[in-house]
């Protein structure tokens, strides 16, 4: 069986047992059509938009995406994994009234549950700014609105 990356409450048959990675995410397979159908119904009937257009729920934009990020204080983009935590720390220092809300699903492997908490608790900001960070936790995976699906 393959476990969902976006929501570990979902599982499905492994397509290729010898593959290094899963070819699909069981969560998307299980509930994706409900989201696409609802979106298509809403934009066409309520918003009167998109008639005779095709909605593509997934496109492989990541293949051409530029992941280079120029952190604060750097003269050029860094060839490393994108980390925007220094940007958030700078923004909170510049605007001490800035509020941050971190939403986390217990069953999310795409953005692991405790990683966001750890990152927020270790932001290089004055201790008094920690009170501006709020945490909300959900009995879900990556999509916090998918609580009742599993």
Describe the structure.
The protein is an alpha+beta fold and 150 residues long. The chain folds into two domains: 1-65, no CATH class; 66-142, no CATH class. It has helices spanning 26-46, 85-94, 113-121; strands at 2-3, 11-12, 100-105, 133-138. The strands form two sheets. The protein has a two-stranded antiparallel ribbon with strand order 1-2. The chain is globular, with a radius of gyration of 19 Å.
Q: Can you lay out the helices and strands and say which pair or pack?
A:
Layout: E1 2-3, E2 11-12, H1 26-46, H2 85-94, E3 100-105, H3 113-121, E4 133-138
Parallel strand pairs: 3-4
Antiparallel strand pairs: 1-2
Strand content: 5-15%
Query: Over all CA atoms, what is the radius of gyration?
Result: 19 Å
Profile the largest sheet. Answer: 2 strands, antiparallel
- Oligomer state equals single chain
Overall form: globular
Q: Report the average pLDDT across residues.
A: 90
Q: How much helix, percentage-wise, in residues?
A: 25-40%
Number of domains: 2
Poorly predicted regions are none
Strand order of the largest sheet: 1-2
Look at the helices and sheets and give the structural class.
alpha+beta
The ordered string of helix (H) and strand (E) elements is EEHHEHE
**How many helical elements?**
3
Distance between the termini: 16 Å
Total E-strand runs: 4
